[in-house]
Amino acid sequence: MRKNRKGAWRATGIVTALATAAAIASVTPVQAQTTADLSAWITDGWGGGTVTSQPAGIDCHTTAWDPYTTTDPPPNPTGACTASFEVGTTVTFTATPDPGSYLNDGPTPNPVTVRAGYNFTWAMFCPADGLCSAG
């Protein structure tokens, strides 16, 4: 005698489908990123200066460096070179050269609208005597 299992398989499939749907419905959706980091990158033009942001958060300074008078590596920028801002915030930058230096280029881009992920601006300061790595 042969047993009819067709109904049992159908019932198992329905129960599995319902359990899968319930598991999918219980997953918490991924939250949208509400803040993101924004960095000021001061390229090595051998001059000194500061990049600041409005709204406040970034106050990044680099010191002038002459590769022909020292074998030491260039100094790292100091201060707050990265800050967290709300996504959608428009941040405007000001670049101020130190005495004896000038702003060769940047900040670029300016302003920056903060987006989820990586955000940056950059600037290059050169010494006033014309010796600049940017040529």
Q: Can you walk through the features of this model?
A:
15% of the residues lie in helices and 40% in strands. With 135 residues, it is mainly beta. A five-stranded antiparallel beta sheet has the order 4-3-2-6-8, with no helix packed on it. A four-stranded mixed beta sheet has the order 5-1-9-7, with no helix packed on it. It has one helix at residues 6-25; strands at residues 35-43, 49-54, 59-62, 78-80, 82-86, 90-97, 101-108, 112-113, 119-127. Mean pLDDT is 83; it is low at 8-13. A hairpin with a 4-residue loop joins strand 2 (49-54) and strand 3 (59-62). The chain is elongated. 24% of the residues are buried.
List the SSEs and their pairings.
Elements: H1 6-25, E1 35-43, E2 49-54, E3 59-62, E4 78-80, E5 82-86, E6 90-97, E7 101-108, E8 112-113, E9 119-127
